């Protein structure tokens, strides 16, 4: 009687390894950039997560550029997970900003920087800039709108808008013909498209950044910041005659 051959044990399947995030660092660049920003760019790219890809371009304006960047990134990287908008006038003051924003696991999350209206940080709730001085236990703040100068967007957001057949472009400037109010490309994207699908942006107070702006000093001492004149200081009080 021949011996019974041993029964081969079932092969154990290899463990499923979850792939890490794939981030497209999308930079709406300009013809001229501040030297401080240029010198900081290698740090951002050097500390980005593995499998990150860098895209930079400038179209007819920032709206068209944001539109083109996410489209190019999604077409170039089929398994892309996130788009990180990094404007050429924002310098992170926090180390590893992309990794910090990724840990938040939010569909849209921005770092903190001063807005271009000079009214507060570039994040709003009920049309008011977020008050960072308010007491809170969570570094994340839900907002209605955020600036996109240092902002992480999940690719699922774009896929949701595409599947819903939302009109393109997703980023555009819109002027209300009745009120004459201008809506910027980031506000349009967030309030007119994302909000329809329950997608809310967040602000991560742990990620801080500098917003570079131009400054000019007029002959009379008046300071101009991006053509917004600031009143000169009042003259010193006159001394009583002796």
Task: Supply database-style keywords.
242 residues; 5 helices; 16 strands; globular; three-stranded antiparallel sheet
Task: Output the helix-strand order.
Answer: EHEHEEHEEEEEEHEEHEEEE
How many DSSP-defined strands? 16
Strand count, sense and closure of the main sheet? Answer: 8 strands, mixed
Structural class: alpha+beta
Count of separate DSSP helical elements: 5
Strand residue content: 25-35%
* Regions with little confidence, pLDDT below 50 for 5+ residues: 14-18
Mean pLDDT: 87
Rg over CA atoms, rounded to whole Å, is 24 Å
The end-to-end span amounts to 132 Å
The coarse overall form would be: globular
How helical, in percent, are the residues?
A: 10-25%
Could you please describe the fold and organization of this structure?
The chain has 242 residues and is α+β, with helices and mostly antiparallel strands. Helices cover 21% and strands 26% of the residues. The strands form 4 sheets. Strands 1, 2, 3, 4, 5, 8, 10 and 13 form an 8-stranded mixed sheet that branches. A hairpin with a 5-residue loop joins strand 14 and strand 15.
Short description:
With 242 residues, the protein is of the alpha+beta class. It is built from 5 helices and 16 strands. The chain is 21% helix and 26% strand.
Lay out the secondary structure.
Layout: E1 23-28, H1 35-46, E2 53-57, H2 62-76, E3 82-86, E4 90-92, H3 97-103, E5 108-112, E6 123-125, E7 128-129, E8 140-142, E9 145-146, E10 150-154, H4 155-163, E11 174-175, E12 182-183, H5 185-193, E13 201-211, E14 215-217, E15 223-225, E16 228-230
Parallel strand pairs: 1-2, 1-3, 5-13
Antiparallel strand pairs: 3-10, 4-13, 5-10, 6-7, 6-9, 8-13, 11-12, 14-15, 15-16
């Amino acid at each position: 009687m021949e011996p019974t051959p041993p029964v081969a044990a079932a092969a154990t399947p290899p463990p499923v390894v979850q792939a890490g995030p794939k981030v497209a660092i999308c930079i709406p660049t300009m013809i001229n950039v501040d030297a401080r920003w240029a010198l900081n760019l290698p740090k951002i790219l050097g500390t980005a997560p593995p499998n990150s890809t860098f895209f930079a371009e400038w179209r007819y304006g920032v709206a068209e550029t944001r539109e083109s960047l996410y489209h190019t990134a999604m077409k170039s990287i089929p398994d892309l997970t996130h788009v990180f908008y990094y404007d050429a006038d924002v310098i992170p003051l926090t180390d590893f900003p992309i990794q910090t924003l990724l840990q938040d696991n939010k569909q849209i999350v921005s770092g903190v920087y001063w807005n271009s209206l000079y009214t507060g940080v570039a994040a709003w709730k009920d049309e008011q800039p977020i008050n960072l001085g308010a007491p809170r236990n969570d570094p994340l703040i839900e907002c209605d709108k955020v600036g996109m100068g240092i902002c992480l967007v999940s690719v699922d957001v774009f896929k949701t808008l595409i599947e819903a057949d939302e009109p393109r472009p997703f980023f555009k400037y819109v002027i209300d013909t009745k009120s004459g109010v201008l809506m910027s490309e980031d506000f349009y994207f967030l309030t007119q498209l994302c909000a329809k699908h329950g997608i809310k942006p967040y602000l991560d107070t742990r990620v801080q950044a500098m917003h570079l702006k131009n400054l000019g000093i007029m002959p009379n001492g008046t300071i101009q910041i991006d053509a917004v004149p600031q009143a000169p200081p009042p003259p010193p009080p006159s001394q009583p005659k002796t």
